[in-house]
Design a protein that fits this description.
seven-stranded antiparallel beta sheet, mainly beta, single chain, OB fold (Dihydrolipoamide Acetyltransferase, E2P)
Length: 119
């Protein structure tokens, strides 16, 4: 499922190498709504460099894939996790029209990449 998040970049994290085959980088985008939300978006593997041209305070639109996972603990408890995996960022100008954008190639497929979660 694909979603878009519009708002202001509050934080841009460093790239973290989780395993030999999996790295991620997180940003926080604060929405421009009456009751603003702080949304954590992760960029994984080939997309970790997408936030490079942006700075904290930039207004952006981030296209993401919504990913849910089920995990069973050693004690048998079921837990559910939800991630927003970014695959495109567009800078918005003052009138919310896109100014520039960066994205990974259309042929990009992360279905065979590790999710970085411990299950």
């Amino acid at each position: 499922m694909s979603v878009e998040v519009e708002g202001t970049i509050k934080e841009i994290g460093e790239e973290n190498q989780i395993t030999e085959k999996f790295c991620k980088r997180e940003i926080v985008v604060v929405t421009d709504e009456k009751y603003s939300q702080s949304i954590l978006i992760q960029f994984i593997n080939k997309s970790t460099d997408l936030p490079d041209p942006y700075s904290e305070g930039d207004k952006v639109k981030v296209s993401c894939n919504l990913q849910g996972k089920e995990w069973q603990s050693p004690k048998g408890e079921i837990k559910y996790f939800l991630s927003l995996n970014g695959w495109r960022i567009e800078k918005l100008d003052a009138s919310n029209n896109k100014d520039s954008g960066s994205q990974i190639p259309e042929s990009y497929d992360d279905s065979d990449e590790e999710s970085g979660l411990p299950f």
